[in-house]
Amino acid sequence: MNARVILSFDCEGKWGIADCLTPSLHAQHRDARLREVYTRILALLDKYHIPATFAFVGCFAASPEKLALMRPDLEKLALHFPHYLGRALEDCFDGTREGWTGDWAVRAVQNAQCDHEVGLHGVTHIPWDDPAMTEELAREELDIAYRHALPLMANCRTHIYPRNAVAYTHLLAERGMLGYREARRRTSRFASLLSEFNIWAVPDGAFAYESPQRIPAGYFLNWRHGLRKLVPVTVTRLRVRNLLRRAARDQKIVHYWTHPENFATAPSTFAAFEAILQEVAIARDAGLCTVLTQASYSQQEDSYSRRAADSAKAANSRTSRNLT
């Protein structure tokens, strides 16, 4: 087996920043700007023939009409999370009304040349480690998406937790999801920035099979904003090149993730993104890596597990026959 590469996007619109909106963020997340960013990302993925996982916040994936129908259920849920969902609904329905619905983005992903995966990034983007988020409320939030038959949910097979707050994984299994992206141990912003200069970063190994499958957390694609603009694209390129080479040698996994919205707030991030795509395409064409979506990775792990179980069963059967 060669290296396995996964690219995933946390698609949020404004839902991902509902608790920290500023005038600047309102301006950067206008509908026209988001459309431009998604179009450019998909064009680059088509250019290099690289499929990816686009995990959408359920509410962002809804049309304005569908979101209006969901409003009573969302307002009921917002009673428990006024600091997050309450603020989101206020701006969504009575404020700027910009950046909250992206059903057009889901269609664009589905109509792209590459066979991308559409996954789920929470329903409202309330992090499941919020002190108020009980198992009952987490199940209710998830049920809202299914109860209103969001088209997103029909073929949704993997999940990315909002703010990487992994919790209540059994609720995903109840809905038949194949896997979810794991989270790395949280570090300070300064430590995270310094890590971008580590060109000898280590690729991930696979987790033992379970249901739903844990997908390696991977690395955040450098968001070229603030001090992160100090990280040269050449360093980002060398880092991913070394990750791919080591992963090919050791049969490991290279997973990069980001938010499309990060490109709206820092357009120079496109340079780092294309550098990664170029290195992945070179490695793939040289036979050093296989590019997977989160769903195809999870299916592959399931297949490996079944074959291993069958082999073990056959070996036990042979041992039993030899003993009789």
TrEMBL record:
Source species, domain of life: Bacteria
InterPro entries: Glyco_hydro/deAcase_b/a-brl (IPR011330)
GO biological process terms, semicolon-separated: carbohydrate metabolic process
Record-given protein name: Peptidoglycan/xylan/chitin deacetylase (PgdA/CDA1 family)
Source species of the chain: Shinella fusca
